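Hello,

Our lab assistant flagged a job as stuck in the queue for most of the afternoon. It eventually completed. Since we weren't sure the result was trustworthy after the delay, we are filing this so someone can double-check. Below is the sequence as submitted and the structure that was eventually returned. Let us know if re-running is recommended.
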Amino acid sequence: MIRMETTSGVRAILQAWAAIFWKGIKHYTRYPGNFVLYLVIPFLFTLLIFGMGQFVGGNNAATNFAARTGTTNIIVYEILGSAVWMTSWVVVEDVGVVLRDEQMKGTLEQNFLAPVNRFTLLIGMSLTDVVITTGIFFIVVGVTLAIALPSAFLTIIPAFLALLVGLIPMFGIGFLFAGYIIKFKEPYILTQIVNLLFATLTGTYYPVTLLPYWVQFLSGVLPQTYVIDDMRRIVLANQTLVSLYGSVFILLALALAYPAIGYAVFKQFEKKAGVTGEFSKY
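-- returned structure --
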């Protein structure tokens, strides 16, 4: 009897995940412009930064860049940062803002009244983003490596593994925003500010070591910082994940801490919202 109940419970969770996952995928297939925009933005910002650097640095641009980063392959260096930044953008906006969208459509209360654990609901939302961010990474980075650095094309696999580990704490950050949005209902301004802060603090377009020491401390608590640095070491410096074990362990620690903290904060906001009636307020 216990085994049958356990099997039934696992099946119910898997069915809930599948339903939430396909709902998210249908949104992207119905409105493909969102996905196309996610593909264009990394190239757009990379070319913008590259053009500005060439204009300001002139003939010494590549030399100055190499002195600070250790590589003259500016495009690959920048596109790796852009790709990771775009994945964090997707996670923060999807996991955080989707609850506000559900509230505006009048379906949030229905979802919360369903016999589904909140953690199951948040994981289901995250599964869609795993597929979307995977597509973004392989298309953006794959095209760039095929054109700019074909000899390092196969390093896209270990680089992607680093991203997968880094996605777990990113989803934890998304849970934090989901709780905030239930309480304050202003997702769009906050997510835009946070996305810009991520681009600034995580070394998206420059080494984190150029930042002041106190800012580097803030960078050290963000998973994207380690993912971007690891990818650049793997692709541009021919290092392996084994040789980067220190930052991998940090990412694993963040992968345990952020989801636990994010979900705890989310549950606290949800509990208060259930008492004060925040779910029905717009």
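-- support follow-up --
The delay was a queue issue, not a problem with the job. The result is valid. Residues 1-7 have pLDDT under 50 and may be disordered. The chain has eleven helices and no strands.
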